[in-house]
Design goal:
9-stranded mixed beta sheet; two-stranded antiparallel ribbon
Length: about 140
């Protein structure tokens, strides 16, 4: 999934072993994952996708208070999930760490690298189906 504020950004689904980087997309109010070398294409993760960060994860302090230091999560592994689904006009994309911490992607510091380790089981069947019948999708140019 890709967050609500990325509707006007080119997207593609995540694949196993994708090398990702946290980024702020142009003309949006959010951050997300882009593939390394594809900075203008959001990589959409399905809930349950497991990722491994290259280093301990850091995020911005709560409430965007720039006077505070970035928060060090102290974790490398995470599982993508969505939160606050009852509210359609808020960020939903988040990562959950093994210790139970949940952090919105929009709070992750830019430039952090991660690798997709595993897609959820349901996604594996969908990927196999897509490979059998490839479809070309062009990014939306509407505003």
């Amino acid at each position: 999934m890709c967050d609500y504020s990325l509707h006007h950004v080119a997207t593609r689904p995540a694949q196993i072993e994708d090398k990702l980087v946290t980024t702020k997309f142009r003309n949006t109010i959010t951050r997300g994952f882009a593939a390394i070398g594809e900075p203008n294409v959001a990589v959409c993760l399905l809930p349950g996708t497991e990722i491994a960060f290259d280093q301990n994860v850091e995020c911005e302090p709560a409430f965007g208070v720039s006077l505070l230091a970035n928060k060090k999560i102290g974790q490398h592994l995470a599982r993508f999930r969505q939160i606050n689904m009852h509210n359609p006009v808020t960020h939903h994309d988040a990562v959950e760490f093994p210790d139970g911490q949940v952090v919105l992607l929009s709070r992750l510091c830019e430039g952090q690298r991660a690798t997709v380790l595993q897609l959820p089981a349901a996604a594996g069947a969908e990927v196999a189906k897509e490979r059998a019948t490839p479809e070309v999708r062009e990014p939306s140019l509407s505003s």
